[in-house]
Amino acid sequence: MGDSYDIQRGNEAVSAASTSEYTKYGFNIFDIETIDPRFKCLFCEFVIKEPIQLVECGHRVCRGCFDIRAATVENGRVKCPQKDCSEFADKEQVMEDKAFRRELDSLRVTCRFKTNNECTWSGLLREYQGHLDENHIHYICPDCQTRFPSQAALDEHVHSCPVNFQRCPLAPYCTDEMIPRNDFERHCLTQIHQEAVIKGVLGDYNLSEVVTSEQQMETGALTNELDEKTWEKIGSLGNEVHRLEGASIGIDKQQKEMQEEITRIVQGLNTFYSLINERLSIKQGVQPTQEKLQKDIDQLHQSFENLQHVSNDGTLTWRVDRVSEKIADAQSERQTSIYSPIFYSSPTGYKMRVRLFLFGDGSARRTHISLFFLLMKGDYDAILKWPFYYKVTFCLLDQTDSNRHIIDSFYPDTKSSSFQRPRDAANTASGIPKFFPLTMLLQDDNVYVREDTLYLKIIIGFNDMPKTLLPYILTLNPALPNYVQENLIQQETIKLQQQQEQQPNTVNNPQSMFVNTGK
């Protein structure tokens, strides 16, 4: 318990120091406050440099900002700096966010030195570091932090830098510390220096040991000046006392007037609060009706979306956009799966949909994407044949002309409850947990994800279509009308049958097995 508290306390210290103690690794740019917050590092609050994503919560930071904190915290576990986020992560629980980096690279920025009218550069973020390295390397005075364009200019400045130090002439009776030159006059008026002067004048020590005759004259002058200023201050304080006595009378009068004004304000506030409470009770009475109306609107909106692209021929082409964002959501378990639009085998047929786990499910989590088939309760179930026994085929479409589609299928287990007539809204999902390796899906420029979008095709085999016909079906132009596609498929089927008659020993590839996941 103690160790856990210490780790948490240490990380809280790291979080508190995020913008002060640690080097800010992000890009500082002109008008940084106008940049979209999602492009800013949660640690340094600059534009993210070398973006990484915390696996557990999905928040993004600079790699440098994370690494320097991980190196200073026990066990290397760093608390996410996002407000209201309590997740911790070590170096094994972060991943490079390549998709987000490409988005950052195309961000337009302006050089930070535009603030002082030193630079007018503006361009893409991926070119910014090169601009800084080429144009903004400066030589800085270690004392006053002034920047100079060359080493020679810095060397010349050092001889006249106002922050150079000198020792007090009354040392060691005053102080042995080195005093900044521009603070020396202020030091001469400090209590410790004045006491040293007075003690020297009174003979508490031999002033001649530490001061020259010229300095003795200066000390006498300072003493006289101190006496004059002391009496001047005393007189000023006396006048101030008389002024304050007169002012206190006016303050008492003002206080009485303010008290009367406060009483009037309180009465007005009480009236205002009564009106607020009255309107609040009216609002509370209306709120349940508003919530019900909003719920009805949401349901109608969902129904409209579902009906926009309804398929009634036992096939579905599903477009999945924002793939990188949805993978991150699945990885952090904010939303582990997504559902396809509902589709039907015919206008009066089976009601179906597909469930997709982009970061895998069960034993396939973190290794594969998982695909599952669901039978849903439909309006015509009473006249349909049960159990459902038709072959289900999943296809991940190649978005290039290579047509290297990923195809896998399974036959339903007719004894499973997943394929009986649905009694609830939907049956338990069944399908293929290890449909496609996640590592291949995450590769840059893979043929299945383009512009952060992938396409899945689901085919229900009501006519016992041979698997060898599937690659041909997937090459058909989706824009063709259904009757044209069916015509072409029929022609290809006849062609395949003729080829099989010529080669009677051809063996079909075995079908993939399905797994009942309990989804």
TrEMBL record:
The keyword RNA-binding does not apply. Residues 41-81 form the RING-type domain. PROSITE patterns: MATH, ZF_RING_2. InterPro entries: MATH/TRAF_dom, TNF_rcpt-assoc_TRAF_met, TRAF-like, TRAF1-6_MATH_dom, Znf_RING, Znf_RING/FYVE/PHD. Keywords: Apoptosis, Coiled coil, Cytoplasm, Isopeptide bond, Metal-binding, Ubl conjugation, Zinc, Zinc-finger. It comes from the Eukaryota. Residues 313-460 form the MATH domain. This is Uncharacterized protein. Its main location: cytoplasm. GO terms for cellular component: cytoplasm. One of its GO terms (molecular function) is zinc ion binding. SMART domains: MATH (SM00061). Pfam families: TRAF-mep_MATH. Residues 500-511 have a biased composition (Low complexity). It is found in: Cytoplasm. GO terms for biological process: apoptotic process; regulation of apoptotic process; regulation of canonical NF-kappaB signal transduction; signal transduction. Residues 500-519 are annotated as: Disordered. It comes from Adineta ricciae.
